[in-house]
Structures are given as structure tokens and as C-alpha cells.
Amino acid sequence: MKFEKRRATTKQEIPTTSMPDIVFMLLMFFMVATTLREVDVLVDFKLPEAKAIEKIENKRLVSYLWVGKDKRIQVNDSIVKVEDVQPVMYNKRQSLPNIIISLRIDRGADMGFVTDIQQELRKAYCLRINYSSTIKI
Amino acid sequence: MAFIKKKGTRNAEIPTASQADLAFLLLLFFLVSTVFDVDTGIGLTLPEYVPPDEMEQVEVPKDRMASVLINENGDVLLDNNVIPVFRIKEQLKPRIESKIELPSNKKLIVSVKTDRKTVYNIYIQALDQIKGAFFEVRDTYSQNKFGEKFIDLTEEQQNEIKDKVPIIISLAEPEAVK
Questions:
Q1: Is B32 within a domain?
Q2: CA B90 to CA B74: how far, in whole Å?
Q3: A-chain residues within 8 Å CB-CB of B171?
Q4: Domain count of chain B?
């Protein structure tokens, strides 16, 4: 008498035909969620921490201004002087009237310098600002 | 002689076996390059620029003002009392609360003034405290009135509370550099 093992006839493979679809779905999500960095930050800075912070809802309106540890100011892609902040910002405001300036200032900067920048922004009529800070836990 | 058309027997399909690999490559690229950075910070609206010689002095009643002075050592002077930075919130809260029912031209104004040598971090801490005071008053007020936190309210209700508890922070005009 011959004993033969009964073999399962069902295939034991995970169907992989739908894998590309799944991967594409993930891909779509990341493509939509990605914001590619448009600017290289040239200054070294560490943001202050705060609790009562709010999110900027409309990213399109935001324009950045960096102030590094070495008191250098960066707007767009270049380092500018304090006196140049006004014309640059004024041009920006011309194209985007309700612009929000996000100030990414190093926590060790002194207020005199910050005030100077603020005065320039006021002269350029960029009145909506946001002191960028990270959340304190 | 009969001409019989030769039928193509090759099947014209694009091989899809490598599609998954391609998609994975793209996926990896976007995974690596994604930064979920949400801009967070303390929002503020600067006053319009007025040349110094056109400036008008407006008298504000003393009980409406809360002046916060921060010197270069990080000491805080709130209405002539020296207090630590982290106590600004609790000092301001009762004063904001006492003015909830007053008309909008009698609400509390918090004026912030710093020295030129004050460290930015301390200024942000102070501003954080002031904002926090306003936010907490808004929260308790909406909790009492609508039974919900401020962020969970409808826009209409939020506006009502914003009217009752407006955030008025005034940055002092910088003094001329000596």
C-alpha cells in the first residue's frame, strides 16, 4: 500500500499584482505632502521655545527672514544688510499684499537688532509678523 | 497562388513586473525629501510706521495699561513691580478678566518695552506669557459661556469671544540710539 501525502492544491503565494497600486497610493500621499525646500539657509540659528504658539494656516502667504548667531540677515537666498530689508520686503509686499513675515531669529540675538529689523519691516508696510518658535513641552 | 496574411503571434504587452520597483524608487525619493514642518510661532501685528516728528501722543488711562519692561539682565518690571518672567501670566490674567465686560475701547493694553541689549529669548518668553494669559482667559470664558474650549467653538462664537477678549499688545516705539 502506498501512502501518499495529500498536497494542498491551493497556491501559497501572496498576490503581488496589486502591490504597485498600493505603492502608488503611498507615493501620491508623499508627493502631495512634500514641500521641497526652495531656499538654502545660510545662517546658523536656534529658535526660541514658547508655549502659546499658533500655526500659520496659510503657507502661501509666508515669507521668511532669518537672523543668525553672527547677526547676519538672510532674505530669500541671500544675505542682506539691515538697510536692504526694507526695499526687498516692500517688493515682496507689492506682489503679495497680506504677506506674513516669519522671523526666524536666533534666541541669543539682542533686541536692539531685532527692533531695527522691525522698524525696517514697518517702513516696508509688512506689518503681519510671526516670531517663529518651537513648542516647549 | 493564395496569399495568406501572416498573423502576428507575438503579444504586445509592456512588462509590468518592474512597475513596483519603479514606484518604490519614486516613493523612496519622496519619503526622503519630505519635511513635515509646520510653521509655528507667536503672531503679532506691527503698528504702521509713522515718522518721529508726526507722532501723536495719545493719553491712555493708567488702569487700561499694563506695561512690561524687560531690561538687559532679563528682569521684568510689570507696573513698577519686579517679577520673574514666568509670573507675568498669573499677574495679567485677573486684570484681563476684570475688563471682559467693558466696551472695546476700555480693554487692557499690554505694552512691551525692551532694552536694546535684552536677549531675544527672554523677550519671546515674556511675549509667550502675555499671549498665554490672553489665551487662558479666552478658554475659561468660553468654557463658562459655551461649555467648550475656545478652539472647539464655531467661528461665530470665536469671534464673539475675540470681541470680548481682544489681544492688544503694543510694542513701544524704540528710543533713539544714543
A1: no
A2: 18
A3: 118
A4: 1
In Å, what is the CA distance from A59 to each residue of A39, A73, A101, B39, B143?
Answer: 15, 21, 11, 8, 31
The CATH number given to whatever domain includes residue B110 is 3.30.420.270
- Domain of residue B83, residue span: 61-171
Q: What is the pLDDT of residues A64-102, one digit of tens each?
A: 888 888 888 888 888 888 888 888 888 888 888 888 888
ipTM of the assembly? 0.74
- As a three-state string, the secondary structure of A104-128 is EECCCCEHHHHHHHHHHHHHCCCCE
Residue B44, domain member (yes or no): no
Domain assignment present for B53: no
Whether B44 and A135 lie within 8 Å, measured CB to CB: no
Note whether A112 contacts B124, CB cutoff 8 Å.
no
Residue B114 lies in a domain: yes
In this predicted model, what pLDDT tens digit does every residue of B21-79 receive, in sequence order?
888 888 888 888 776 666 788 888 888 887 777 777 777 787 788 888 888 887 888 88
pTM: 0.76
- B118 and A111 within 8 Å at the Cβ level: the answer is yes
Give the residue from A27, A39, A90, A99 with the most B CB atoms within 10 Å of its CB, the best one to mutate.
A27
Contacts of residue B35, defined as CB under 8 A and 6 or more positions apart, other chains included, come to A34, A35, A37
Which range has the worst mean pLDDT, A30-34, B123-127, B167-171?
A30-34
Q: For testing the chain B interface, which of A23, A41, A89, A104 should be mutated: the one with the most B CBs within 10 Å?
A: A23
Please check whether the domain covering A49-135 is classified as CATH 3.30.420.270: yes
- Kindly give the interhelix angle for A111-123 and B120-146, rounded to the nearest 10 degrees: 70
